[in-house]
Amino acid sequence: MSNNIKETDILIIGAGPCGLFTVFEAGLLKLRCHLVDSLPQAGGQLTEIYPKKPIYDIPGYPSVLAQELVDNLMEQIEPFGPEFTLGERAEEIEKLEDGSFVLTTSRGSKIKAPVIAIAGGLGCFEPRKPPIGNIKDFEDKGVEYIIRDPEFYRNKRVVISGGGDSALDWTIFLAEVAEEVTLVHRRQGFRGALDSVEKVMELNEQGKIKLITDAQVVGLGGSDQLEHVQIKHKTEGEFKKETDHFIPLFGLSPKLGPIAEWGLNITKNAIEVDTFDYRTNVPGIYAIGDINTYPGKLKLILCGFHEATLMVQSAFKTIYPDKKLSFKYTTVTGIEGLEKTAE
Fold this sequence. Notes:
By secondary structure, the protein is α/β, with parallel strands linked by helices. The chain contains 7 helices and 23 strands.
């Protein structure tokens, strides 16, 4: 191959938590990894969107901040020396006669590998914005779609809109930070975890937050900065609510980008996979994490870790069809011992 083409065993598209954990599982089998991500740093959504958001469903961690989880994953994979191509989007793939792939990025970088693992989270994404006519006028002037640093809201009045996990989790977290937190949701029921719903209800009863259901924010007002939101209630009509910040958390609008042109079976912006090993319909290409879909799919980091583990076992057999894979527990042999078993 040309000197300007890097080679690896598993090319991972996406350097979020699932992509990073793939490096660890691959490293235990002495497989080299190269990660490509359009973001300028590793961590995916955890680093880019909510680095200081607490995560509650990682085994062994009653609570861990998103950035802390990324830092721990980076430390965990350091012994295996992964390579990174960051700030470049995966654009085109070419399948060679020997069955391997060459990926070309948006900046012309080329990486060759016999296996591709797509761990791109939601793909290219942007926040879903509510249909408020003048919302752009207040972006970065009191309207934020992503909470990167909760301390930014210390002793401020905050109105959050949404009914999913992000809206619930941030309402709970900011209740101890902001001067006043109001959660507005268009229905009485919520889509988030039951435990989070119960915590929000409890905070509302204690007067630590204000919960307004059957309502939505329909207007914004202020001069140079946001000063109030206009709320329309199902039965009480419209009224103003003074606030310093309005944070609509309606999720992200995913777009697969160039990956959609790679001949993969796609349903509703997600890649179909076989749950035996999370392979796609294209031999040699796997998909793990939020970017894949299958019956019973749950979009949880925990599930992505499981998918990565099974995928790597299959990838080893694809790369070394004549080698016998002997997998042992890290609790028995340690990482160094496991590396030797894969030689």
